[in-house]
């Protein structure tokens, strides 16, 4: 999963997780990531995931994406690189891994361990 950090023109920061691809960015209400900043188009950009695990960012319908001051119609997303979409700044990184909830499995393992210890203790006392 990809963690997208968006800084708007007033300094507000929001984080969004892209969990499916293609992932759309724009002003439109149906965008996966809705960015309400000056210069952001209704359908501004799409992020695709390639078969070899690369994230490709593509500008939509003539929208501008700036990387280091240069307009980029399509590029491989470089994690940590700051991009400009209108007046908004976008930075991508990998999202932290979500640990599965293992409370039930852990409780079951402890219960089994306690049963084994009790059974061994009973066998020792019966043998004496």
List keywords for this structure.
128 residues; alpha+beta; six-stranded antiparallel sheet; five-stranded mixed sheet; 1 helix; 11 strands; 37% strand
What is the fold's blueprint, element by element?
Layout: E1 2-7, E2 13-18, E3 23-26, E4 33-34, E5 45-49, E6 55-59, E7 65-67, E8 70-71, E9 74-76, E10 82-85, E11 88-94, H1 103-127
Parallel strand pairs: 3-4
Antiparallel strand pairs: 1-2, 1-11, 3-5, 5-6, 6-9, 7-8, 7-10, 10-11
What does this molecule look like?
- The mean pLDDT is 93.
- The radius of gyration is 25 Å and the shape is rod-shaped.
- It is α+β, with helices and mostly antiparallel strands and 128 residues long.
- The protein is built from one helix and eleven strands, in the order βββββββββββα.
- It has one helix at residues 103-127, and strands spanning 2-7, 13-18, 23-26, 33-34, 45-49, 55-59, 65-67, 70-71, 74-76, 82-85, 88-94.
- It has a six-stranded antiparallel beta sheet with strand order 2-1-11-10-7-8, with no helix packed on it. A five-stranded mixed beta sheet has the order 4-3-5-6-9, with no helix packed on it.
């Amino acid at each position: 999963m990809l963690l997208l950090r968006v800084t708007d023109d007033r300094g507000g920061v929001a984080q969004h997780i892209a969990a499916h691809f293609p992932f759309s960015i724009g002003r439109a209400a149906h965008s996966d990531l809705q960015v309400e900043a000056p210069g952001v188009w209704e359908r501004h950009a799409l992020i695709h995931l390639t078969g070899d695990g690369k994230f490709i960012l593509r500008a939509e319908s003539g929208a501008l994406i700036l990387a280091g001051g240069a307009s980029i119609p399509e590029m491989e997303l470089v994690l940590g690189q700051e991009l400009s979409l209108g007046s908004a700044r976008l930075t991508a990184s990998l999202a932290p891994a979500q640990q599965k909830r293992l409370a039930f499995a852990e409780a079951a393992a402890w219960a089994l361990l306690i049963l084994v210890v009790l059974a061994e203790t009973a066998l020792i006392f019966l043998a004496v």
